[in-house]
Structure to design on (88 residues):
């Protein structure tokens, strides 16, 4: 009985974690991914270090948004509760 509840809670938390990362973190940046790759290749000849710095700053901002998201922490808490339930 507890194992079944634990499994369902873990899967629900995992789905919530994926949703929170897409919504608050990366958003819909993957739509523009192909154009970003070609822009990065073209920009390497012009200003490679400036482009890399801009990409790193954008990734840092998206990571900060994920870590501030309530959905992310609810999902992590659900996973931890699930692990604790599976032990008993």
């Amino acid at each position: 009985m507890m194992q079944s509840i634990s499994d369902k809670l873990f899967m629900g938390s995992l789905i919530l974690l994926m949703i929170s990362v897409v919504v608050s973190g990366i958003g819909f940046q993957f739509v523009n991914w192909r154009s970003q790759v070609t822009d990065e290749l073209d920009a390497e000849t012009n200003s490679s270090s400036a482009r890399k710095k801009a990409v790193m700053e954008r990734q840092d901002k998206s990571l900060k948004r994920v870590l501030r998201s309530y959905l992310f922490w609810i999902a992590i808490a659900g996973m931890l509760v699930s692990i604790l339930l599976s032990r008993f």
Observations:
- The first helix runs from residue 2 to 26.
- The radius of gyration is 18 Å.
- The chain is about 90% helix and 0% strand.
